[in-house]
Amino acid sequence: MPGPMDRAFAFEIEVPTMKNTPHDPVAMLQQLIRCPSVTPHEAGVLTLLQGWLQSSGFACERITFSDKDTPDVDNLFARIGTGGPHFCFAGHTDVVPQGDESIWSSPPFAADIRDGQVWGRGATDMKGSVAAFAAAAMDFVRENPKFKGSISFLITNDEEGPAINGTVKVLDWMKARGNVPDHCLVGEPSCAEALGDTIKIGRRGSLSFIVQVDGKQGHSAYPHKADNPVPKLARLVDRLAQRKLDDGNAHFDPSTLAFTSFDVGNPAGNVIPSRATAKFNIRFSTEHSFQSLKELVQMEIEAVRKALGGAWYMRAIEGADVFITEPGDFVSLVQNAIRSETGIMPKLSTSGGTSDARFVKDYCPVLEFGPTNATIHQTDERISVEELKATAKVYRRILEDYFKV
Whole-model pTM above 0.85? Predict the structure, then answer.
């Protein structure tokens, strides 16, 4: 069955505003959704955004990166101003696949407005935020043409995919050209129940393991003639499952370890397998590092090996590293701006999976704030019209307060 990339698409780069009236993030979001930009297909979405920003005086550059094992990815960097302070909005325009279109209440790329909501893939993750901070920045620039500093956009089309040819490489490109921001806000949908209730000030680290034990295959009626790896690996699984990694700290919940696979590749019920393999993932706080966790797992393996024997092999796969933007002036400024617009003082959180903020943190302080995340990646993804407009107002207030300071 043809997918969204097989259909022709067309759009007009229309900036939904009238002179001296605010830009309309709702109309902008509709246009963004109508570009079926499933990773890594750009589908015109960056061209659309680039046209809007250029119309407001932003200098835009499209950067394409490639890798031998992954598709080419188109990215957009836009900046207005040359001096400091330099504030950057970061995000992505790629979306996850829509799945079975027949079970959507509205076509996933039609961007229908119904029941006071904009429906479509990417409405909350995260074309809604892109539309909101584009509208906010364009309005700010128009009404403050002589503001002191710079505003930039780092937009990738590779966040939902491998994240190899997107933000991480754009940041290197920015650094080489003197475009490293002083502060960055990533527009990931951060709020749980209501707009304004949560800011992400960091993320847990992610480290995956594959542990293999080799033994000797044999008949289950003669176990003494075999060397069964299953009890050995099961002992390790039990030890790790029972182990408390830490108690967390002021900004992080306790680290967690979750087993995702235990496999012997053995369809027979009367054969002792020659190999057993387990996979597990650790989400960790600042109480740990990649190295400390590797040493911990290796220590547990060695304890079981000494007790039960076996030939053991361990592979560790580093995902995102743990990071935190410590509360301070920047965090307080964003918190207060959110409270001013929503009436809610947001809590500071490090929950959830990973985002491109993990790359930005190596260059400048970074926070994540965006709309509620109830429908992200779901059939019938949608965002309230009022919430989208309110999100744009929050971003506008952040800019106003930031450049006052």
Answer: yes
